[in-house]
Amino acid sequence: EPIHAFTWSNTNTCLYFASRTQLSNEYYKAYNEQWNDVVEYRDNERGDTIYRIDITDLSRVQIEPVVNISLRVLELICAPDGKHLVFSTGAPSQQTESMDDYEIFSCDLTNSSSPTPVLLMKNHVSEQNLKWLNNDTILFTVEGDVLNESGYHENQERLYSLNSTNGHVDRWADQFSGTVKDFALLEEGRKGIIILGQLNTEIQIYTQESIHHPLIKRTGWNGTYENIVTNFVNNKSTIAFIHSSFDAPQEIYFTNTIDHLTSAKKVTNENKLFTKRNLPKGTKYR
Description:
CATH superfamily of the largest domain: TolB, C-terminal domain
Helix content: under 10%
Number of strands: 20
CATH class of the largest domain: Mainly Beta
Radius of gyration: 22 Å
Structural class: mainly beta
């Protein structure tokens, strides 16, 4: 079966991955004897199994099942302390038939027996872009209202945090009138998060230290920022992103501080041809 979600443990040499639950050879043999070449469409829809691989010794890789679930695992993340595994789910058929299939679950990896998935929240939205803020808090984006209990309601993409211990949900950038396109941790969350927010036709960089602090628009170039990635090692921060505008084609840039985006260094030059052409000029909307 193909692997469609995986994550590293942050505390040891284990890798977790999810694939469709495998059936035994005896099952397939009995199935073929009964149905021959008939394909039962719905019968092939089954949930996933999450496995653990210990790669301490690559000459003897050990794979063991962690938990079975009746849904399809979409994203998988391991807590910074390695004690919990959180995953989002969708329909096994990969077709949107019920919003009840789209939820977030948690598994306690400290449980020596087979852990039971715990539903962290119940709503009518599809959670995406899961990231740990700390050992208790998960960040995610949705195109809807997490706190709306009356049914599915589509909004511009928003950013929320979920406390996996008490189930408390908070919305970040709640005063921002645009859509949240992406986000990343700033210094591993110690200084909050970086948000790529779209207003009209531009995507700019914003930061928010916590849900109790205001959203700050950072001074940068006009245009669009994309695919922002952060790293924080030995108290040194690195921020990489893609930027483009009417006058500058897409290239990758990096900087060591969020305060000097206009001083970011360009590290690729893949689209320099566009700088040599007399291209049509444009102006941003509003």
